From TrEMBL:
Name this protein carries in UniProt: N-acetyltransferase domain-containing protein
Superkingdom assignment: Bacteria
Length: 331
């Protein structure tokens, strides 16, 4: 076995072990293999590029206990623009490895460059102040949720006002029925995120929009069109539903997005949209869901719906930073 493959396998095991411990899951061999392979394909592969560093911490018995990975990669959907990417592996509760990681970052700060991004797991949140001191702030928080629980808590909190607020506004929901509907929805998404790029700078990118448009068209052909929100004949927003691989608990899982014209926001309408999409997910047999967000309303709703935090995405040089206490609900 080559040295590279050996290290790759060690990193994959550490990644899997940390997540299983955090979620208190005793994995089957099949589940472990799936998560380790997912790490190799989706996480480790980008870090095999040149122009960075791989730092390993081992125990006295030479067991890998922590790692810091830094590399240079093309920005997503921007093949000619590059950024530094970082990742830290450690076990939940291992504070000494976090101190080690911090010292590695301090000694190799120049490797992070002017533009960088990366992810921290929830149990690594003690490193956030160091990153913020270097101008690398939280861009989004990863929130997970149980569909049945979220629907129950949402209804308990708002009661009848959910549907009443929606009907009072004269809104109704219809599935996209044509390519023209999809194109109109994409234009609405672009318009809203252009106004607020801090919530999704990638959305303005033509390559990303082309990807989303193709994905939405394929979903419509496969009988899973986005649900569009109208006031009369005017398009006001939409609900996107994406099936993703099962979570660590093996349950059927989804990701979803809610987009609403900014003029319609702040009127209690999104809570009714949450109820609608949770019902749709429930009907299709999904059990859990997740998503990344930096939007205050989504984070507040997450608390109401009993969601839990998985980790954070941080960056520097992508869009204007959020205020320091922007994510305080989830820290």
């Amino acid at each position: 076995m080559s040295k590279k493959i050996q290290i790759q396998d060690e990193l994959a095991r550490l990644f899997a072990d940390s997540h299983f411990k955090y979620r208190k899951i005793n994995p089957t061999p099949r589940l472990r293999k799936s998560l380790e392979q997912g790490f190799v394909n989706g996480h480790f592969a980008p870090f095999t590029a040149k122009g960075g560093g791989l730092f390993l911490r081992r125990s006295k018995k030479q067991q890998l206990v922590a790692a810091v990975l830094i590399t240079t990669v093309p920005v997503e959907f921007q093949s000619k623009i590059f950024e530094r990417k970082f990742m830290i592996l450690s076990m939940p509760g291992d504070s000494s490895s976090l101190k080690w990681a911090k010292s590695v970052l301090e000694e190799n700060e120049s490797l992070l460059g002017k533009r960088c991004s990366g992810k921290l797991e929830y149990w690594q949140k003690d490193l956030i102040p160091w990153f913020e001191s270097k101008g690398i702030g939280i861009r989004s928080v990863l929130l997970h949720g149980d569909i049945d629980k979220s629907l129950r808590l949402l209804r308990a909190h708002y009661g009848k006002t959910l549907r009443e607020s929606f009907e009072k506004a004269g809104l109704h929901i219809l599935p996209a029925r044509s390519i023209k509907d999809i194109d109109s929805y994409i234009r609405l998404i672009k318009s809203e995120f252009t106004k607020n790029p801090q919530f999704g700078a990638t959305v303005k990118n033509p390559k990303f929009l082309k990807f989303v448009k193709m994905d939405q068209r394929n979903n419509m052909k496969n009988g899973n069109p986005p649900l569009l929100v109208y006031r009369g004949k005017t398009l006001c927003g939409g609900l996107d539903l994406i099936e993703v691989p099962a979570g660590l608990d093996g349950k059927k899982r989804a990701a979803f997005g809610i987009n609403l014209n900014s003029k319609m926001q702040g009127k209690g309408l999104s809570r009714a949209l949450y109820e609608r999409i949770l019902l749709e997910l429930q009907k299709r047999g999904f059990k859990t869901y997740y998503g990344n967000t930096g939007q205050p309303g989504v984070m507040r709703m997450g608390k109401i719906m009993g969601r839990w935090v998985g980790g954070y995405t941080l960056d520097r040089g992508v869009a204007r930073p959020f205020p320091k206490d922007h994510f305080k609900l989830w820290l």
